[in-house]
Amino acid sequence: MKRPTYTLPSIVKKVFRSGERSLPRMEICARMEENELVAYTDLDSGSLLDTVLKMEQTPVRVGSSEAIVELTYQPHQLYDLAYRFLRESQTPKLVEQIVAELRRHTQFGWNQTLRLLQLERDPRFVQFQGDSRWFLAEWTLANDQVFAFCEKNGITQVTSRSLVHFLEQEVRVAADAAFLPGLDDRFRIDGDTLYIMVTGNEAESDLAVQEVAAAVVPDMISAEEMNQHEKNHQVLKEMKEDHTMNNVQSQSVFQEVQQLLEEAINRLELRHTEMSQEVVAHFQQSNMQAIEVLMKEKHKNEQIALGIRQVLAASEQQ
Q: Model confidence at 238, in pLDDT bands (50, 70, 90)?
């Protein structure tokens, strides 16, 4: 069973509440078990804590006695700026993205910022196994909520273009909740479609996915279609070039403009295909904001292409 699982250091950090800097060892283990933080790991709470204490970049250390464990975090303005950046953006970020943002607000260089910003030690930042981005410990996880909603309403698939609206308006996922389908075997990403595995058993689930996938017609242009489109365009271009050689100069200019307009449509369609691949990449990282930006670009490009086609149609009638 695969579920989004915090990294071992993050599990220990999640135990500490706001304002706490040290805890009895027994209390840490009890909280891990009480909150089921060790449910999807191969370690018991005691072994997990011992493993984290031995790590090089550990967020905790042994305190005044063996029975006390304390955080190694030391306050610094960079940590506060990083926390503010994630909280305002409400989006998990790679450390490189965080460093780039911090350099805009401080005089520290890249290497110095990277050396000082040890997010492994700050209890406000956590990571999930299999995801290198940093999340805020205060954020919730929406996977259970999304799956329960889909199971209750018989929803088996959601397209990337409607995912943001689906999560916000239908499921009512909180703005500070993370949805990580790529780390959860209850969800499956195929192309630009998210499948929800709500059937009773794995065999039926696989069959349902195959049937749904076969029925879905992607609105993105396939590679074969693009190749054929480029071949047709090249033939048309060559025919027009031959025809242009026999026309007067004014006709040559008209054909050249027409050709440029068709090439513009071709480039917009190529960009359409590129965006389909970008959507998949962002979809796997649950980067809903990036997907929303791509959808806006897609709509704008479609409007431009429509306008160009209308101009070409009008010119052919003259």
A: very low
List the domain range (segments joined by +) for residue 106. 77-137
Q: Does a structural domain hold residue 222?
A: no
Q: What is the pTM of this model?
A: 0.63
Neighbours of 128 (CB within 10 A): 21
Count Cβ neighbours within 10 Å for each residue of 65-78 and write b for 16 or more, e otherwise.
eeeebebebeeeeb
Statement to judge: residues 127 and 150 lie in one domain: no
Predicted confidence (pLDDT) per residue in 94-149, tens digit? 999 999 999 999 989 999 999 999 999 999 999 999 999 999 999 999 999 999 99
Query: Would you state the torsion angle of the CA atoms of residues 292, 294, 295, 301, taken in this order, to the nearest 10 degrees?
Result: 150
Contact 7, 127 (CB under 8 A): yes
272 neighbors 265 (Cβ within 8 angstroms): no
Is the distance from CB of 8 to CB of 52 less than 8 angstroms? yes
Residue recorded with tokens 């299999």: 130
